[in-house]
Amino acid sequence: MKYVEEFRDSAKARALVKEIERLVAVIGPNGRPIHIMEVCGGHTHSIFRYGLEGMLPKSIELVHGPGCPVCVLPMGRVDDCVSIAQDEGVIFTTFGDAMRVPGSTKSLLQAKADGADVRMVYSPLDALAVARKNPDRQVVFFGLGFETTMPSTALTILQAEREGVENFSVFCNHITIVPTIKAILDSPDLRIDGFLGPGHVSMVIGTAPYAFISSFYKKPMVVAGFEPLDILQSIWMLLKQIAEGRCEIENQYARIVPDQGNDAALNAVNRVYELREFFEWRGLGSIDRSGVRLRKEYARFDAERKFDLPNVRIADPKSCQCGEVLKGVIKPWQCKVFGSACTPETPLGALMVSSEGACAAYYQYGGLKQSQAAE
Ligand code: SF4
């Protein structure tokens, strides 16, 4: 398959690893590993799926960032979803991986088992189709994700407006990547030497919004694709910058990511949403201007305005260390409940739910064995 097989070539991967080892030797020891954060959960998944971490020199430590939107959804927002879904007049539609995220009392899947009409969809347009077919019910779509999914939700709202569909609304939990990276860079317990930038988000926003990372924080970033050679090449590009004393925003994924972003998607985003003053992230707390809501012109499509929500802030269970994993302070298998009280079948924290969650990736691709070996 074009653009897939050639990015999985094992001989080229070995050659890249050799080049990475050479650059690590040029950079030399500085008393601690080189910390590289992959911002995006899709990268985390690829890194474990293809065993890339094990191919790298020990002096490179990959830190798994907060770029899995399901993983950073706070319990209180899940409770809000359950509350909407339990309204008898509502059909609640959502992507499948959000159904198992634990709320304080139940997940959407459990709400469905208890009788709520919760339906899995593959896109917001599917949810709009459900609304057209059920004019006597309120159909709510759970809008979730970074800039990658924001445009499709916005375009669906614009479509609903054009068609005059009045029984469709969005529970908007879309979040935005730039303030999140800034919060990570401002975090005192993090020492990141460079970033693998998110490929899908950048397809929409381009590379220019990351300029502050190199100009102000003096950290390099390489926007990376998701195949094994993409990731290894991006790590090599980052190390090359460090070895040469450069600090730039580079684009390894240029076959997909235009530096200027996608105008049509950005226009839809700017038309429909505005920034919230702050948004709560699981494990990271409240981050200023890191989420969006619907503009008042689209209030009739806004589930937060249509429904009374509990809107309560719920702390994670005490045994849950998702926040420390999200900030890269501990590895997933170092969480006290990893593989025991928390597994993909019975997730205690959201990082064990989505395939892009670091804990689920570790569990699925051998991290459990690593954890047991370490004990
Ligand atoms: S093992 Fe479970 S509780 Fe612990 S950090 Fe991972 S998802 Fe959170």
TrEMBL record:
UniProt record similarity statement: Belongs to the HypD family.
Keyword vocabulary terms for this entry: Iron, Metal-binding, Plasmid
Pfam families with a match to the protein in the record: HypD
Entry keyword Iron: yes
Cleaved signal peptide residues: none
Listed InterPro entries: Hyd_form_HypD, HypD_1, HypD_2_sf
A Gene Ontology biological process term: protein maturation
Record GO terms (molecular function): 4 iron, 4 sulfur cluster binding; carbon monoxide binding; iron ion binding
Stated name of the protein: Hydrogenase maturation factor
